[in-house]
Q: What sequence folds into this?
């Protein structure tokens, strides 16, 4: 599955957000910087109205959304790269995620201590990014030192690694994150394997006060500008509102949202934004027993998409019967789509499209 790491300075609302995401009180929100030692991991459903629609048409007995994993990575503070706070361990946790949800404090509240003594989300973002850049630089230096012997032996893989590490080092030493490095297609895989922290895509989560949830505020506007300049994305959320919503029944939640002037829970937007950031898509399998959503990367071909369900589906792949989401809906289901000639037989080279309803045929 895909993993998003929630990072941010202490007291910006990470635990509150994580609790709302996972609807548990397990990750206790407290006005205390280092309360979380083990990273908290939570799986969340990816909201998708299309899945409910497909299930209604096919009268599926159960609905199974696709899932995304969030990891609450607390304890990242100024000096983390030098092992301050619980620095090093948290940096290791960040290495393992696919993308970073960076929570920024965009609310004023004299009762909640800010570690830097002021509310300035853009400066906060820089504090964290600087730690990540320093951590990358340190690991690059170590790794390059370890490569020296192999380089003497004319090892091609080592040469490629060293060349890429040098490129990253160069931009980092100039105060920029490694993600600004442009990598050729041939180097793409090795580059990714380096797992540099500042190559991970970032989604800024502006945690605003309840009354600013619908509109944002000056702080979130400043973050939006920064994000756009970096080519990263941002969402505006009130972690407090999300926490309240997560404890309500669906109909109550809908009323509450309307009162707050919100069209949908911020968490839905957050999860969707994460999806976009990671270039993920969804395809569906639909039948009387269940309607289910599956996650793939954009550009995935049919056999590999089948492999998400089961390895045997990929190995023995013969072909896929495919109906586009819109056709499935407008024809009133599989039978109707078939009769209208909207069911396609697709082979191994078919690139699955977002929303496709798939049925895989395979040899066992
Ligand atoms: P973390 O250290 O980043 O995980 O932050 P927490 O989620 O524990 O939140 C720290 C404190 O800030 C808690 O007392 C929260 O209730 C409070 N807090 C979180 N979000 C908001 C918000 O939008 N407005 C206000 N006023 N307080 C908030």
A:
């Amino acid at each position: 599955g895909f993993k998003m790491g929630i990072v941010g300075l202490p007291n910006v609302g990470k635990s509150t957000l994580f609790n709302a995401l996972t609807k548990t009180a397990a990750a206790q929100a407290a006005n205390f910087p280092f309360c979380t030692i083990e990273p908290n991991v939570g799986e969340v459903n990816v909201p998708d109205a299309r899945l409910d629609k497909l299930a209604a048409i096919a009268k599926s007995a159960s609905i199974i959304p696709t899932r995304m994993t969030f990891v609450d990575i607390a304890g990242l503070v100024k000096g983390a790269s030098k092992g301050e706070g619980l620095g090093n361990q948290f940096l290791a946790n960040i290495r393992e995620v696919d993308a970073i949800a960076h929570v920024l404090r965009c609310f004023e509240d004299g009762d909640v201590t800010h570690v830097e003594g002021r509310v300035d989300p853009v400066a906060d973002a820089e504090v964290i990014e600087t730690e990540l850049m320093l951590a990358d630089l340190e690991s690059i230096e170590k790794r390059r030192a370890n490569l020296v012997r192999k380089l003497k032996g004319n090892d091609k893989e080592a040469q490629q690694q060293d060349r890429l590490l040098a490129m990253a080092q160069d931009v980092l030493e100039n105060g920029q994150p490694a993600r600004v490095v442009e990598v050729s297609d041939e180097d793409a895989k090795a580059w990714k394997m380096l797992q540099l922290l500042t190559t991970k895509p970032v989604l800024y989560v502006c945690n605003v006060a309840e009354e600013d949830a619908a509109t944002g505020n000056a702080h979130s506007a400043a973050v939006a500008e920064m994000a756009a300049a970096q080519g990263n994305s941002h969402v505006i959320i009130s972690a407090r509102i999300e926490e309240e919503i997560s404890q309500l029944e669906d109909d109550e939640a809908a009323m509450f949202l309307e009162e707050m002037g919100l069209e949908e829970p911020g968490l839905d937007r957050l999860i969707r934004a994460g999806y976009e950031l990671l270039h993920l898509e969804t395809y569906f399998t639909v039948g009387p027993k269940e309607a289910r959503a599956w996650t793939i990367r954009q550009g995935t071909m049919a056999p590999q998409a089948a492999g998400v369900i089961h390895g045997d589906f990929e190995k023995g792949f013969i072909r896929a019967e495919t109906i586009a989401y819109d056709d499935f809906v407008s024809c009133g289901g599989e039978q109707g789509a078939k009769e209208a000639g909207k069911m396609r037989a697709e082979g191994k080279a078919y690139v699955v499209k977002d929303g496709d309803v798939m049925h895989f045929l395979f040899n066992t």
User: Anything to note?
Assistant: The chain has two domains: 3-277, 299-362. Confidence is low (pLDDT under 50) at residues 24-37.
